[in-house]
Amino acid sequence: MGTKSRGLGRGLDSLIPRPTPTDAPQGPVRHLRVDEIRPNPYQPRAPAADETLSELAKSIRTHGVLQPVIVRRTAAGYELAAGERRWRAAQLAGLSVIPAIVRSYTDEQMLQVALVENLQREDINPIDAAKAYHRLAEEFGLSHDDIAEIVGKSRVAVSNTLRLLKLPAEVQERIRAGHLSEGHGRALLALDSPAAILEMAARIEREGLSVRETERQIRRMQRAGGLAQAPVRQPRDPHLSELEQELQRILGTRVEVRHRRGGRGTIVISYFSLDELKRLSELLCSLGRAVSVRRASSDE
């Protein structure tokens, strides 16, 4: 990939143009045909078709592409350096041309820009972020301080995220999928064997343990010299289990009914992504509206 480069944070403006105070892009803007442009071959993150891409396409149909994509010229046309989601959404919106700034990037710079652009996404998961940090450190010789400057985080936060790569691959995948949080992952790192980590990770999901509960259980394990046994619980009312299963079937996600003495309790509905939160919110609101209509009809 060429020689390593230092100080990407301070040199980032030379790679990705920043808007001026008037929001005009720096550098000449050209209008290129979308079919002339190819994805960044060094893109570390596979493109995902999701609802937000459709929403972006809808916005583009109304307002156009407000921020140019960044490309480099090749013998076959142009390759994207930054702005792949805008480019894909423009295609989805039916645009034939898209505003672009042409830069002369090396292969190394193409990878740098792709990594940094991914890290600046709000929805990047902790494992993808950790792998991007690792590549910036290993392939470009950047320190944790350099990386922290690039992404606007503290050095400690960068170091803690990088530590997640020490977890077994199966646990990393559970974090990537949103079944375990970054906090759970950091707590699991206190265990001294992959087997103990895998067993505790399964228990977190099975029992719905919070990060603090996980930390407490791990401290008990360390004091006892092994996995702490789950506390003995009273037999559960089978009607509650049936209710949970029915709610899970309707909502399509994990539901827990926590019943207390005196008839009080809580219903916990889990979600594992922003898209799933949106889906659940819309479903619950539609169910609420349907109930209101039925009540109004019965009152007439």
What would your notes on this structure say?
With 300 residues, the chain is α/β, with parallel strands linked by helices. It has 3 domains: 12-125, Conserved hypothetical protein from pyrococcus furiosus pfu- 392566-001, ParB domain (Alpha-Beta Complex), CATH 3.90.1530.30; 167-224, no CATH class; 238-294, no CATH class. Helices cover 50% and strands 11% of the residues. It is built from 12 helices and 7 strands. It has helices spanning 51-63, 84-92, 107-119, 126-140, 144-151, 155-163, 169-176, 182-188, 194-207, 211-224, 238-251, 274-299, and strands spanning 30-33, 37-38, 69-74, 77-82, 97-102, 255-259, 265-269. It has a 5-stranded mixed sheet with strand order 1-5-3-4-2. The chain has a two-stranded antiparallel sheet with strand order 6-7. The N and C termini lie far apart (74 Å).
Keywords:
300 residues; alpha/beta; Conserved hypothetical protein from pyrococcus furiosus pfu- 392566-001, ParB domain; 3 domains; five-stranded mixed β-sheet; two-stranded antiparallel ribbon; 12 helices; 11% strand; flat; disordered N terminus
